[in-house]
Amino acid sequence: MILEGIVTTLSPTGILNIAPMGPEVETGLERFVLRPFRTAQTYQNLKAHPEGVLHVTDDVLLLAQAALGPVEPPRPCFPASHVQGWVLRDTCRYYEFRVTSVDDQQERARMEARVVGTGRLRDFFGFNRAKHAVVEAAILATRAGFLPLEPMRAQFRELEVLVNKTGGEAERAAFALLNAHIERAAQERSRAREQPGQPP
Ligand SMILES: Cc1cc2nc3c(=O)[nH]c(=O)nc-3n(C[C@H](O)[C@H](O)[C@H](O)COP(=O)(O)O)c2cc1C
């Protein structure tokens, strides 16, 4: 199964990177398989320093922000105990891991990871349709650069109903960020169509 989580890694210069990632996991979570695109910072970081922390969280605002780029303002963290890396303080559970093998023949790499330390910080909120809608919208938003935008906008309109009906402030803020991102992408594409040859 895929577990949609948030992975923290370190760049070679020690900069913390926070990115949503959906590793393949099995019950027990002693090992998992990350599938980062080779273009992802997470991939680059893990190639250079094969340790990180996988977080299980219900904080969809952080998930949305991290899907779109560097997270501002920085989130409170504390140092991991078993790897060189950082744990997000506002998370439900976390898994410190070490990458044990890398297959990067494909555009999407396959990185097997072994869990070397875990922790539990707070309860998971529970099922909520708005939170799940934000996860779906965040995945779509990360594809706004290359997928057709009209079907994506239609999906956003459907997801928005769930967010408004069942979400709180954080879910609405997260959805607004993602929506603004795809609207910007749509504007850039229509500008590029109007002015062919100009950089978008
Ligand atoms: C829920 C969720 C799961 C994701 N899973 C993956 C994944 O498994 N592999 C991947 O390369 N990108 C995945 N993404 C997209 C990345 O989060 C996105 O491209 C991000 O910008 C990568 O950040 P980075 O370049 O800092 O690593 C996922 C996004 C979301 C919202």
Write the layout of secondary structure elements.
Blueprint: E1 5-10, E2 16-21, E3 24-25, E4 31-34, H1 41-48, E5 51-56, H2 60-68, E6 77-79, E7 86-88, E8 93-103, E9 110-120, H3 129-141, H4 149-166, H5 169-194
Antiparallel strand pairs: 1-2, 1-5, 3-4, 4-9, 5-8, 6-7, 8-9
Helix pairs in contact: 2-3, 2-5, 3-4, 3-5, 4-5
Residues 4, 17, 19-22, 35-37, 40-42, 63, 67, 135, 138-139, 142 line the site of flavin mononucleotide.
Characterise this structure:
By secondary structure, the chain is α+β, with helices and mostly antiparallel strands. Helices cover 37% and strands 26% of the residues. It is built from five helices and nine strands; from the N terminus they run ββββαβαββββααα. The strands form two sheets. A seven-stranded antiparallel sheet has the order 2-1-5-8-9-4-3. Strand 1 and strand 2 form a beta hairpin. Helix 2 (60-68) packs parallel to helix 5 (169-194), helix 3 packs parallel to helix 5 and helix 4 (149-166) runs antiparallel to helix 5 (169-194). The termini are far apart. The model has no long low-confidence stretch (mean pLDDT 95). The chain binds flavin mononucleotide (FMN).
Order of helices and strands: EEEEHEHEEEEHHH
Helix/sheet category: alpha+beta
Low-confidence stretches: none
Dominant shape: globular
Rg estimate, integer Å = 18 Å
The major sheet is characterized as: 7 strands, antiparallel
Bound molecules: flavin mononucleotide
Helical content stands at 25-40%
- In round numbers, the mean pLDDT is 95
* Biggest sheet: strand arrangement: 2-1-5-8-9-4-3
The percentage of residues in β strands lies in 25-35%
User: What is the terminal separation in angstroms?
Assistant: 38 Å
Oligomer classification: single chain
Per DSSP, the total helix count is: 5
Q: How many runs of DSSP E, i.e. beta strands?
A: 9
